[in-house]
Amino acid sequence: MSYAHPIPFRAILRHVLLIAGAALMLAPFIWMISTASKPQTEIFSSELHLIPHQFALAENLREAFAKANLLRFLLNGVIVTISIFVLQVMVALPAAYALAKLRFHGRETLFALVLFGILIPPQATAIPVFLMLHKAGLLDSYAALVLPFTISVFGIFLMRQFFKTVPDDLVDAARMDGISEFGIVWRVMLPAAIPAVTAFGIFSVVAHWNDYFWPLIVLNSEQLRTPPLAVAHFRNNEAGTSYGPLMAAAMVIIAPLVIAFLFAQRRFIEGITLTGIK
Amino acid sequence: MAQIELSAIRKSFDGTDVLKGIDFRIEDGEFISLVGPSGCGKSTLLRIIAGLEPQNSGQVHIDGRPVDAIRPSARNLAMVFQSYALYPHLSTFDNIAVPLRMRRLSAIERLPLLGKLLPARRAKERHIRADVEGIAEQLDIAPLLRRKPGQLSGGQRQRVAVGRAMVREPLAFLFDEPLSNLDAKLRVHMRAELAELHRRLKATFVYVTHDQAEAMTMSSRIAVMMGGELIQAGTPAEIYNDPDDIRVAEFIGSPKINVLPGRIRKDAGIDVLGTALKLSCHAATGECRVGVRPERIDVGAGPFSGTVVHLENLGAEAFVHLAIEGAGLRLIARLADVRHLPAMGSSVAFGFASDAVRIFDPAGKRIEIRLEQPERIREPAHV
User: How much is the pLDDT for A3?
Assistant: First the structure.
């Protein structure tokens, strides 16, 4: 006897659509890997093939590392994203705690302002912030890359929503035990909010690792460049565009995020479902 | 140990009066229950004692010292919460150790990594360890010290919460409905344990509950609160037998006290359901309410009659629900002898002794009565 269900048409359609979508998303990525593995001659050949006839990934990588100080740029990326994240947490957690658990006049108004802040795109404030950094003499420095992002309204909002779910009793118990209000933030709320902090960390790190707009505006010095900027500058070298090494460099700079994603895939998905943002 | 005095405590939230002037004195070493329906302000009062909520007016004195401007932790009270409020990321040991660490270690010694290197901290940690282990031993939670709260059952968490309160040797313990998250069986068990703990520690316990059975079984004194006011305080027996107010009578006791419509005649006698009771009072003539506890109703003989509409046989005792024709009224009577229960639907006669009657005026206040003559003496009178 057989219980073989007839495969429903809708299920097939769904999978075809999903595969098509995935292929579309992955195509540039695969093309990048493919190009990074081809020698110059094959890149400009008229025929279209994904698998290179002659593997040149090693040469392209060597050339990429020779032409630009990729390790330095990766290090810049790490310094900037980590500093931004740490400072964002240091600001967002106490702010979110106050908005979620303390009673004071104007709390709702302040929270409305936070929500309003989420609506403002960073490009809108770019010029005033640029001018402020100029007046402060901070342009073309790590500070210029980090400072504008230390207050994350999205982070405050996300943590506030999470703190709302922490029982008030826990906060009261901490007060009875003699923990100060700041102590409560770091000793009680932070450990309880690790999933939310992780989710926020993923968003923050991805956004600032990949940010092209802001570093492009505030940086001049080559040694401060963040990874996306470095790759873009690669293209403009006087030697002309050598796509092989360029794609190899692109692979190198996205590698940390991809590896991090593979390691923390579950957390990543948890984080996205937690925030309900796609 | 401590004596807590509340004078004229008022509290309102967003214009709603939650506490309307509470004056109360909790004696040293007492187990006092604040009992009342939800929303009566009992938890708010407890939080005001703890210092977690500021009162709008009035004073709290602990051992004669005003504590209104003092932070919760400095009042040296310990609180056990309904949700236990254990720190979810800390082990049982660390949960119990938190109040000691906060008090005995300096800010530098509490730092996550650096603090561990300080020699002074190591000595203090040894004392803390000894104290925590001593408490764990007393509460039978020593094998659980390494576990996280998530790995503990409700009753175990409860004990850890009590341990965290005990370890700091507070002036008084505050309990905010600590048993209401437990299942019925465990609740009865924990009731006995808490009462025993109180006898052993001889500390002041302030216990908030909406469960009159908890209040009755554990406390040395009960304070009944309704609508932001403290209506009556007394020993469990006083509250049960001598309620000052019909709301107290109805709240305490399960099943609820039976309330019959009565009438005070011109000659100060009282009629219930058309029958004169053998007692009199000094109150003005007119409507009144007559309360009789289910166990004081004698089924089988008496001037009244009702139809059995429902029977609840609990094995050791039984409750008979009687409908009284014409009055649209239902009574509950407790029968101690479950072997001879009336049949469903049958009509039975019932009555009650005069000393079983509590009379309340239409506003719900108790009216004092005089017994004219003992009608029937079946058991020694209460009180």
Answer: 61
